[in-house]
Amino acid sequence: MKKKILTMVMVLALVMSQAAPSFAATDVRFSGKIDLSNLCTILMDYIFNGGSQEDVGSKPQNPNEDNVVQDQSKTAQVLSLVNKERAAKGLSSLKGDSQLNKVAQLKAEDMAKKGYFSHNSPTYGSAFDMLKSHGIKYRTAGENIAKGQKTAQTVMNGWMNSTGHRANILNSSYSKLGVGYAVSANGTPYWVQIFVG
Which residues have a Cβ under 8 Å from the Cβ of 113 and sit 6 or more positions away? Predict the structure, then answer.
């Protein structure tokens, strides 16, 4: 029993020590509260089943060789939620784009692997550098990033409650969207949206 209590205290300390979810659009960063909604489930999983650092009930699929996890269903949910927000404002839907998805996914995986949170990647440079290096032409472009949110709805709520992110999501000059999602080896989710018009 003492071992189980000690384990629970250690897990609680680990969860509380993780950074709060963060958002960034251009150079502005916003922080929110730590999502503790699944804390009891996670603690019970750790104590009785050996657990993992993944969020119970929404485990991403397709781990790659660098222990970074992707989940295409989450990226599809983000596109759907973006278009729902745009429709509510009378704006045309954004089209998902496989090339943009690839660029957004590379950025999300890079942040997850290297543990940084910035619009400027030490590997690829800015989103604009990445678009250029992948031969993607555009008249206007933007990037939203976020860190720590477990679900597509949570990350969208955060972005929509931020002036800069909401402006990107509701920008009438954009026509396409790429979405990336990756979870680092320590269980931190990273999200990327790349818009072009």
Answer: 66, 68, 184
DSSP-derived secondary structure letter, 126: S
Contact 154, 146 (CB under 8 A): no
Q: Quote the pTM value.
A: 0.67
DSSP secondary structure code for residue 142 in this structure = E
- The per-residue pLDDT for range 85-142, each reduced to its tens digit, is 999 999 999 999 999 999 999 999 999 999 999 999 999 999 999 999 999 999 999 9
Average pLDDT over residues 35-62: 34
Strands 61-63 and 69-70 come out as antiparallel
Q: Is residue 173 a contact partner of residue 146, using CB atoms and an 8 Å limit? A: no
Structure tokens at 160: 């929509």
Nearest Cα residue to 168 out of 122, 121, 119: 119
Query: Are the C-beta atoms of 71 and 63 separated by less than 8 Å?
Result: no
Contacts of 150 (CB under 8 A, 6+ apart): 35, 38, 55, 58, 189
Judge whether 69 and 61 are in contact, CB under 8 Å: yes
Q: Output b/e per residue, 4-26; b: 16+ Cβ within 10 A.
A: eeeeeeebeeebeeeeebbbbbe
